Amino acid sequence: MTKVKQKTAVVTGGSGHLGGNLVRTLLDRGYRVRAVVHRDRRALEGLDVEHVTGDVRDRDVMCQALDGADVVFHLAGIVSLFSQDARLFETNVLGTRSVVDAAIECKVPRFVHYSSVHALADRGGVVDEDAPLALDDPKMSYDRAKALSEQEVLKGVERGLDAVMVNPTAVLGPHDYKMSQLGLVLVAMCKGWMPALIEGGFNWVDARDVADGAIRAAQTGRTGEHYLLAGQWASVRDLAALVSKQCGKKVPRFDAPNWLVWGFSIPAEYGAKWTGTRPLVTRYMLTTLKGHRYVSHQKAAQELGYAPRSLEDTVRDTLDWYRKAEKI
Questions:
Q1: Considering its fold, how many domains does the chain have in total?
Q2: What CATH number is associated with residue 159?
Q3: What's the Cα-to-Cα distance from 84 to each of 91, 118, 285, rounded to whole Å?
């Protein structure tokens, strides 16, 4: 009997929230995994994973990490919920350029770029893959950086790189070792620390479903295309009700108007930057909660077989994981 070669998947940003879920899914599906990690390795402890320490902006390190890879999943980048963040361009855009260059040099057969729904502009109505890139508003640094990073991937495609892109919405889910911003909000809701809620909502998706969608994109996605990996839209109040069901805390009665929260968020942001902490709410968050309400994942469903789970299941499993990890 002919032995089937085990495929090697390289994951940049493998120790992040999305990365930790992707690595586990890849291992479950029989891949050999090599994870490129900058510093924090908690999300990968105890896993049978090869580690490469380095910065994605270092092309020499990337060439070594990608050597012999069958598929590369590029996740490494900074997620920032501040309106202005100077680090975003250097890491998210120049870092992507470095990894794309290395993938071309190493002749990597397949490249999957983790982008974001924020890379796509919301012009009203349904947001799908035909939406223009969010390049217009320099105040939305994260959105613009993700859009520019997609352009780097498309330049690579023009040079012969077999690449696809996936665009998750707002991510929840287990294995959130570094505590994402949304994770902090869920924990605060579960502990009853929020005296009021915020108006608005967003499309929420499970990190495990994003991992599944990305692997499906690697296998059958069309070169140069991107695929929205969405879940379901829910208001902050809807989300709080699901958390309340799991934690037993009452849902706050009031929704604080955005103008009031906006006023409080400004000194909170400056204080967080001064102390090196993270505020629970930022002006960028308030802006995003007003947009991207109607996000379609029809293309991913039809072409990849993508099928996200319910938000209620995601909230339950996420909170269960936070309890086991003693975050709650």
A1: 1
A2: 3.40.50.720
A3: 14, 15, 12
